Every structure is written in C-alpha cells, then in structure tokens.
Task: inverse folding
C-alpha cells in the first residue's frame, strides 16, 4: 500500500481519548488479561501518570485488580502500600512517600501520585477484609542497604538467632552498601572478595521458612515473612547487579529486568495464595522495560526486558503491553545523574519516528488517542518497521537527542496498543527549586507566535 493508504488504514482504527468515557476503548481492548503493563515514554510526563492512574482505577473497580506494581524500590513502595492498605503509621501521603530519598525522588514524590494514593486508601477503607485490599509495590533493586537492614529488623522480632546469622552474612557488604557502586567496582577489579554466597544463603533461609508455611494445607505465607523474603531477594540481585555494572551493560540490564519479572511472579503467587484465586496486577514502568525487547535494536544486541519475560512466562492472552508516546511539550528531568529536577522543553519528534507518525495521524483533530495493535492486522500491516522510538528517562539531553534518546523498534510487535498524547506537560514535583519553574517558557510556547 502507498503511504497515504497506510495512513488512512491507521486513522480508521485510531480511537480518540478526550473524555473519561472514551477510556472504555482501552479497557475493552485489554480484555481478560491479568497482567496489564502500562508504559511511559518519559519518567516526567504528567499525562502519562494521569492516564495510567485513571486506567488503574477502572481496572481495580471494574475488573478486580489487586495491586499496582511500579518501577521503584521495594522498601520505599512497601511503606506506601502500608499507607494505602491502612496498616501503617503514616497518616498522610506525603509521610508515606518520605522513603523516596534516592534520586529521582520526583518520580514518585509528585502531585499526581499523591492524588492516586488518597484514592487507593479511600477505596481500601471500604474493603473489610484486609487480605483483599489493593497494594502498591516496587519491583526495582537499588535498595541494597535498606533491604538488608529490613531483613535483620524482621528477624530480630521473629527469630533472634536467625537475625544473628543474617547480620553476620550481611556484614560482608554492610560497611560499603551505602555506596554499592564502590562495592561493585572493588569486587569487579579484584580489590576485595564478593559477597555472593552470603546474600544467596540468606535468601535461601527465608525461602525455606516460607516453604514450610506453604506446605501446610490451605496455608499461605504471612505478609511480613513474604516482605522479608523479597527484601532478601533484592539484596541478592542488587549484589549481582552492582558487580555486573562494571563488566557488561547488557548483563546488568538483564539482571535488573529479570529481577523485576521475578518480583512480579512472587507477588502474583503470594496474592493468589492469600485471596484463593488468581491475582491480577497492574504494572507501571518505562516503555523500554515494558515493550517487548525482541522487537527492538536492544533486543537484537542481547538485552531482554520485563515485557518480553511476562509474555514468555504468562502468554500473550494474559499479558497486555500498553505503550505511551508524545510528540512535544515539557518534561521533568535532570541533566545529569543526581542532578536537580528541571522543567525541560521536549523537542518535536524526529522524522521517521513512531512519535512523528502518531503526530501526523492525529493531524490536530485527535490530540490524544488509542491505536490498538493486537488483533488489528490492518494496523500492523500499515505501520512501517522499523521506526525510531524516543525514550526519555530521568535524564534528558535534547542537544544530543538522536544519539541519547532514540532507538529502532517494530512497535507492532513491541506493544499490544499505543496511547499517544500529542502535546504533553511536565510532572510537578512535591519539592522543586529554581531549576523547575513554569516561568522558563514564554506564554506563546511552543508556537512562538
């Protein structure tokens, strides 16, 4: 088909998303999938957070989903989960989010997350059975020190002798765990022995405790033991991750995304056992983690990711991958790692990119729309492959955008659907400084007129 015919075929299938009622199209396309993975083209775009929140609420209320699992550290998100499940001591969302101290705090310490957490807490206050209340969990692995400390704290109450063993094992790494990159550097270059055996043994001991509970008829693992076991899993995989950082980027990426997949599977199994029926989980993470890596140039280079692993482990029917794109606007991001949050202008997307194609598809008439891919052979046939695809993380360098933020992908194989927001706006941090101010841009931005 010609380019014009391809565009006509795509427009015929695109569905506007200008009202809440029009989100029905997304819910309908998700169908009966029990693992709904919602992406983002950047970590600092408000519309992505709001759309994911609106869709998550619908899935929780209408489809009985059990938890939101996010690209965040396990202990920080667990504090939030206790707040929304009304089991913790925090009385406000701001207090519950206080654990997010590591860069980039604004990914979770922002106005839109606060609104979502109050909604989740209110929802749970109308759920009498504590075991059926929806949770908010993290699946990342950067919390090496916090997670080791949490394991010891749990065991000090549950089994003081086991706590002594845990302290002894973790002493191998504890003095350097506050800066785990130094640990990774030292072990990778032979300056000290690694602590792999110790963290593996600790996870094994807690897993054995959990299995003893599971071997009882009709029993499930107590929440606090499961949480401690997950902390030990974080410690084990973080130790591997920081050693791999200095040997292979692909290896460290694969360790991280495999950890995310294992965390999802562990949560799925735990919640399923607790409620007595299969769990249903919502996942929030960057497109680069959720779009099937096999359809990208990174996948061809040896990387795998969470979306790929979920499809492989749970099948296409149970796994739904929803990507998000934008053409231009503003974004919250830093210029370098550990830098301050800045309000940055997002450049109009490059020619030959999926974002530019979506911009052309909307033609000003559909500023926000859904493009279903799964089950739409005409759409898949009309999409060029490969296309460039933009990925803005916590760092955005518009001056080197083509090299820093674009990669090649076949979006028809990468996702089950795309949501495009043509002009997007920056996420508003709870704490911001002179680096983040709406006064940076003239009132006529982006037209300049």
Result:
């Amino acid at each position: 088909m010609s380019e014009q015919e391809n565009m006509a075929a795509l427009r015929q299938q695109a569905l506007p998303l200008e009202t809440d009622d029009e989100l029905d199209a997304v819910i309908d396309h998700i169908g009966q999938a029990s693992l709904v993975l919602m992406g983002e083209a950047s970590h600092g775009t408000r519309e992505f957070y709001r759309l994911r929140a609106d869709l998550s609420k619908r899935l929780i209320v209408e489809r009985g989903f059990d938890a939101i699992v996010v690209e965040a550290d396990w202990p920080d998100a667990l504090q939030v989960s206790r707040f929304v499940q009304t089991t913790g001591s925090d009385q406000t969302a701001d207090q519950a989010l206080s654990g997010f101290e590591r860069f980039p705090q604004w990914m979770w310490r922002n106005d839109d997350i606060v609104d979502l957490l109050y909604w989740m807490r209110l929802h749970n206050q109308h759920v009498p059975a504590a075991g059926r209340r929806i949770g908010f969990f993290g699946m990342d692995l950067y919390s090496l020190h916090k997670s080791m400390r949490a394991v010891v704290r749990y065991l000090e109450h549950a089994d003081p002798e086991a706590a002594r063993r845990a302290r002894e094992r973790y002493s191998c790494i504890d003095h350097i765990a506050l800066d785990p990159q130094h640990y990774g550097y030292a072990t990778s270059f032979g300056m000290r022995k690694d602590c792999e055996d110790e963290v593996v043994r600790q996870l094994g001991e807690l897993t054995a405790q959990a299995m003893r509970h599971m071997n009882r008829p009709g029993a499930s693992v107590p929440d606090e033991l499961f949480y401690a076991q997950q902390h030990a899993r974080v410690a084990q995989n973080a130790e591997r991750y920081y050693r791999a950082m200095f040997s292979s980027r692909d290896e460290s990426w694969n360790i991280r995304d495999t950890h995310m997949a294992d965390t999802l599977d562990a949560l799925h199994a735990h919640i399923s056992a607790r409620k007595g029926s299969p769990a249903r989980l919502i996942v929030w993470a960057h497109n680069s983690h959720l779009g099937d890596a096999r359809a990208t140039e990174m996948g061809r280079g040896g990387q795998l990711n969470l979306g790929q692993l979920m499809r492989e482990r749970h099948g296409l029917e149970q796994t739904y991958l929803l990507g998000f794109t934008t053409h231009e606007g503003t974004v919250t991001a830093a210029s370098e790692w550990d830098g301050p949050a800045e309000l940055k202008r997002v450049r109009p997307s490059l020619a030959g990119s999926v974002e530019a194609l979506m911009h052309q598809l909307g033609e000003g008439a559909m500023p926000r729309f859904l493009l279903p891919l799964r089950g739409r052979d005409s759409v898949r046939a009309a999409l060029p492959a490969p296309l460039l695809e933009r990925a803005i993380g916590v760092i955005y360098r518009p001056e080197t955008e083509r090299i820093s933020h674009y990669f090649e992908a076949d979006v028809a194989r990468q996702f089950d659907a795309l949501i495009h927001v043509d002009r997007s706006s920056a996420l508003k941090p709870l704490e911001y400084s002179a680096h983040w101010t709406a006064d940076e841009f003239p009132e006529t931005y982006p037209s300049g007129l």
About this structure: The chain has 19 helices and eleven strands. The CA atoms of residues 155 and 163 lie 5 Å apart. Residues 142-277 form one domain. Residues 439-449 have pLDDT under 50 and may be disordered.
